[in-house]
Structures are given as C-alpha cells and as structure tokens.
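dumping the sequnces here before i forget
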Amino acid sequence: MSSTHRREITGFSNPTVKYLRSLREKKHRKREGVFLAEGLRLLTDARECGHVPKTLVMAKGRDPHPLLDALEADVAAAGGEVIETSSDILSKITGKDNPQAVAGVFAEFDTSLAALDRSKAKIWLVSQALRDPGNLGTMLRTGDAVGAGGLILIDDCADPFSVEAVRASMGAVFTQQLAQAGWDEFVDWLRQGDGQLVAASLRDAVPYRGAPYAAPCFVLVGNESRGLPEDYEMACDLRVTMPMKGRADSLNAAVAAAVLAYEVLDTLEA
Amino acid sequence: MSSTHRREITGFSNPTVKYLRSLREKKHRKREGVFLAEGLRLLTDARECGHVPKTLVMAKGRDPHPLLDALEADVAAAGGEVIETSSDILSKITGKDNPQAVAGVFAEFDTSLAALDRSKAKIWLVSQALRDPGNLGTMLRTGDAVGAGGLILIDDCADPFSVEAVRASMGAVFTQQLAQAGWDEFVDWLRQGDGQLVAASLRDAVPYRGAPYAAPCFVLVGNESRGLPEDYEMACDLRVTMPMKGRADSLNAAVAAAVLAYEVLDTLEA
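..and the predicted 3d for all of it:
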C-alpha cells in the first residue's frame, strides 16, 4: 500500500501529540466531540460497525496486517488523517506502558434517548450514577454478550468515552447503543412505550431466579457504594434480589448487572 | 476512651508515614509480611473475622463511632500501635483523594493450599493468571456473596494484598480464604480429595445452564486477555460455556466467574 498520505510525527512536543494526549481528559473530549480507542481488534470492531476514525495513529515498526491496511484505506478514503509515530509517543498518547500498535480518534455518538430504538433488543442495561469507568466498560461488554441493545446511563455517571471505559468495553462501545439522561427524563421516555424496568434491589424484592421478566426488559443497577435511591427502586416494575450468602449485602455493580442480565436472557429465550 | 496510648504524627516526612506509604508497593508488603486496608466497614469486617490490625491509623477530626472505639481497644489490648494523623497524611498513605477516616496494617495470611479445608464450602473460585487487582477483589466479593470458601490464585496473578484488590473486595479479603499455587501444584492438591473442576471455556463445552455441577465445585476462569491454556481446560472435569449473542467471544473474567458461580449455587442448592 502507498504510504504517501501518511504523516510522520517524531517529536513528543508536536502539537498533534499534545492534542491526542489531551483527549484522555474529559473536558478536552467534550470540547472536541471525539474520543480515543486503541488496538487493532477494537478498531476493526469499530470499522465493521461502520465507525471510521477521523485520525488513525500507527506505531512504526508494527507488524503488517491486512486489517490494518483495510483500516488505513478506509480512513484515507473518508478524508481522515493517518499518522505514523514511535511506540514511545503512542504510549504517551494512550497512557499505556505497552501500547497497542494502533489507535484511532472517533467522533462521539449521539447519546440522546430519542436515538434509541427499544424494539431492537429484548434486553437493555441501565446504570444509575455509575462512577467507575472500568465497570461502565464491563457493562457494555456484558451487554454485547447477552445481546442487549445498549446501555443507558442515568444521572451523573463516568464518561463512556474515557480511555478506561472504551478499553474495558473490549469494542462493545461500538456495538452497543449508548444513551445518557437524568432519571425523570428516562422514566418519561420509558413510559412512552413498552418496557419493563427491573431493579437489582433488597427492598420489597422477589428472587431473581424465575422472576417474571418481560421484553423489552430494562435491567437497572445503582451506584457502586450507595445503590439505587429508594424512590427509583419503587418506580420499577419489578425488584429482584440475588442470594447473598456471606457478610456482604451487595455485589460489584457490573457483576450484579451481568448475573441479572443472564437470568433475563435465559427467561426471555425459553 | 483514654487516648494516652495514641501516637500523633503531624509530618509528611515522618518515617512511619514513609513506611506505611511504602506498603502500597508489593516488594515492601512482601518484605514486611503485611498489607493495608482502609475504612471502618472493612476494618470492622476484619475484626469480626478475628483479624486485628498491628497498626491502626486514624484521621484527626473524624466522627466518633463506637465501632472505632472497639477497634482501638482491640488493637491496644493486642499490643498494637494506634496512630493519629491528619486526613492529608492518611490520604498520602492510602493514595486515595478522599480517604476513609481509618486504615489498618494487617499481617498477611497463610496462602498455602495446605491451609485450605475444601469441605468447608460447596463452591471455590479459582483464577489463573488474573492480572487486574480490581478483578481479583471483585472475585473475592462475589465469592463471599455466593458462599464460596475462598479464591485460589493459579500461576502469576495480581497481588491479593494490594490496596486496589483489598478495596475492591469490600472486606471479602478477610472472609474468603486465599491460596496461591502453580497449576501442577494445584491439580496435585485437588486430586487428593473430592472436587469437580469446572472451566468457563469455548472448547468442547456444554451450556452452563443445567450442567451437572457437583460439590465441592471449583470454578476456574482464565487470564483477562488470553483465557485459559488449552491443556488446563482439558484437565477440567467439566467445561461450560455461556451464551455470547454479540461480536465478543468472552466476558470480563470477574463477570464470567460470577455468572457461573451463581449458576453453580442454584444447582447445588436445588
């Protein structure tokens, strides 16, 4: 493949390096409306879902790969920029000691509820005040696995476009739909159509095994340390609880969502 | 309560502060045979499981609490040290911006397989080459929730005594037994008694729902990016697979362990 359209960057202080590096901070991502994703597998997932990076950054000395060639051709065809740089500089950009050989800058998605088509899937994950980007990415990954339509982030959650969340999603940030909304806005939207809202809860709850799940089922989990506000739980159609055999009374939020989502999947597929 | 046995530390450069801060690094923990845990809830869990800190560090200006008084009395009675310091210094010790009001230094536990009594529980979690301390702590927390006996770490795993793992375990590091061993050593130990080894796997696997689980059931998950080596999977008594409806072929390791462990729990309790 011709490399004439590639731009090479050799200096750490290059303005493009500074720009790319700044995208690890939320305020810069929001201002630019873009986010960073790294790794050939993730970028290939993105490509197959129709997401072409605006900028592709490749490490010199990488192993050649036909998927990388295809990616580069797409970026060039779409008028994007292809940058070649050192592993060290790529490492500085992504903040990872052992960087992948490639990273991309993508336009952020529309995360309005209006863009969600609830009829597209039987399961949707909903998370309230989720603070940990790793948990957020893990929930996206779980959503992909259970065939969910996407993840709805309620109230003040971690940024789904952070490097940590994108990394933990293992590409699911491109396959799952994402929406962000306040609680009232979400409930208004939900009640305009079909949808069962199910909370993992300890209050007035039935066992999660064999509960009467119905599609489209919206699986709601709360904040990592505080759980869900009581009035949110009470607004749900169903409250379910998982066995707690030990001293603790709760699971990690991403774990709770996964155990519950797999149970819902089993019920809805039966 | 009398405070005459308390020692106050006001300077960041105090040798005790340096010592406590050094415990965030594995090499220092191993040399000293101790680890750090933070937060009243976690330290209370520890206390109720019979673990008294060698050193208790409390922030000045904390809210008084009867559980904290009880903790302090235990530490003093056991000949341990009670230190009072500023929130800023406590924050420097634990590496957390919003530190809890209290932290403790505990002796590391015996993590030999010989110390495990497999008859104590129907479920045991086993993790191979688990690299992420957050995942490790989450698995401990899940183990507590499903009534597992403990977590067995195979090959080169993250340190269960790291601040991150202890924090993510939400106290389960004190309620779950911990063992560390190489694969061959683990299999030798396992085959000396009852025990079904079950792998989350894609090879020659049966659906995880309704699989013939038997107690004591050892639930094995592999490394975050590589999964389990094929020969490890083939040494298992049962290989099970979870539905994967999306593009991905795997779940987060801690999520896979949890979904599987809850299924095993349901089967063994039926």
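The first strand of chain B starts at residue 6 and ends at 8.
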